[in-house]
Amino acid sequence: MPIRRRRFMSKIPKGWTGDLKPNRWILPAVCAAGVLLPDPCPAAGPARNIGAVLPLWSMLPFAGILLSIALVPLVLPRFWHHHFPKVSAFWAIVFAAPFLYFFRETALYEIAHIMIVDYIPFILLLWALFTVSGGIYVKGTLKGTPAVNVVILLIGTVLASVIGTTGASMLLIRPILRSNAWRVYKVHTIVFFIFLVSNIGGSLTPLGDPPLFLGFLHGVPFFWTLHILPETAFAGVILLVLYFLMDSYYYRKESKIAVPDEESEPLSIEGKRNFIFLSGVIGAVLFSGSVKLGEVNIFGIHQTVENLIKDAILIVMGILSLWLTGRDVRKGNDFTWAPILEVAYLFAGIFITIIPALAILKAGEQGALAWLIRSVNTPADYFWAVGALSSFLDNAPTYLTFFNSALGKFYPGMPEAQAVAGLIVDKIPYLAAISAGAVFMGANTYIGNAPNFMVKSIAEEAGVKMPSFFGYMFRYSIPILVVLFILITFVFF
């Protein structure tokens, strides 16, 4: 017996079964110590439930990249501006290198899976919407008064459930930025835009937000989400009223020197053909969830044919938009590729480092967050558990985890189709809480939902000094949204 293994064997605690299969808490530690066990970190292939093995501290690189996004731009702004792709790559390597070393094929599968199935479609959708919306130029005088801003926010909130939160955000962020370009106080306008257009407005149809689309794929009827119309209307009205009061206060404080003194120009829209391409993007997303065309194997990763067709349509729509839209239209929109590149670099690191968090959640009661899964029982529990995790993690798998948890809790052993049929009729408050939590609380942080960070990047490129990661939370989302969500809990859940 090798010396290192003999020393390890001499230190085995009493009561050890002797089968040399460390449990999920000590296996990574054993691997890290380099103990010469017979395959202590076996790669059992993609079927292995990696979430049942990983401990909570495997999420530290994910916490590291979040803290970097939050703190480095404040402490070292010049460094961040020039090197944020390297920071993202650093944290991705910090997680991926030991993960690949110890779990080999399983780790390679998990990384390839999240990049091929999740990250690439995510970036393609953002790129297509960013490109197409950048070719739609709302021209004319649109003065950013409180009334005008409320109308834009209201339109965006309604549109979010029709063309998705990302589509509505990319379509309207530039017009609202231009209409408020002369304003001194405008940060709060972009923040409420994120609250309403980028998140809460997308709660009424599966097209609105990815978690609801997942529910649709698992048997929830397309219009079932209208059950949370009261919660959405309640949140929307309160936020719009609060915004109007806040913006009216700031508007009165604006210096008269800042008020534009220019001739009124009638509103017009250039690049109208991009609405056709926008419809193509939304149609492609709806198509991918409405048909089943089988699967293909890409480097060992199973991807559906309909999703590949969707991604191809997205690329075509983006290319057509670039080809058929005049440069003067994009110049009028101050269009550059910087915001989409920033999102692509940072979210590449986020998607890789988020693997253990999603895997642990997916493991349910077999994972390190089993205590959380078991403690969720009431609609209010579901609302806050799903919402809190959706504030920092991808809200789509979070929704699916607790959706399946509710099915198992109320309809154990029942086929999914039958269980879902019972859930949507007999347990409406539970599914409503899961849906609302996943969509509403994505607004709590910049990374809670896909368009949040994009809106922030576009606003900053337009010269708006947006709050930092923690500044956004402590100045806006916690005092406004969390209080609102507590109120919603008492009223609805």
Account of the 3D structure:
The protein has 493 residues and is an all-alpha fold. The chain has a domain at 3-59. 66% of the residues lie in helices and 3% in strands. It has 20 helices and 4 strands. The chain has helices at 3-10, 27-33, 60-75, 77-133, 146-179, 187-196, 210-217, 229-253, 274-290, 305-324, 327-332, 338-353, 355-362, 370-375, 379-390, 395-410, 416-426, 428-440, 450-461, 469-492, and strands at 137-139, 268-270, 295-298, 301-304. The strands form 2 sheets. Strands 1-2 form a two-stranded antiparallel ribbon. β3 and β4 form a beta hairpin. α7 (210-217) crosses α16. The longest helix has 57 residues, at 77-133. The chain is globular and about 65 Å long. The N and C termini lie far apart (60 Å). The model is unreliable at 1-47 (pLDDT under 50).
> What would you call the shape?
globular
N-to-C order of helices and strands: HHHHEHHHHEHEEHHHHHHHHHHH
Q: How does the helix and strand content classify structurally? A: mainly alpha
Q: Quote the average pLDDT.
A: 81
Helical content (DSSP H or I, runs of 4+): 55-70%
Strand content: under 5%
Largest pleated sheet: 2 strands, antiparallel
Given the structure, what is the number of helices? 20
What is the distance, rounded to the nearest whole angstrom, between the alpha carbons of the first and last residues? 60 Å
Identify low-pLDDT runs: 1-47
Gyration radius, rounded: 24 Å
The count of DSSP E runs of length 2 or more, i.e. the number of strands, is: 4
Q: Looking across the biggest beta sheet, what order are the strands in? A: 1-2
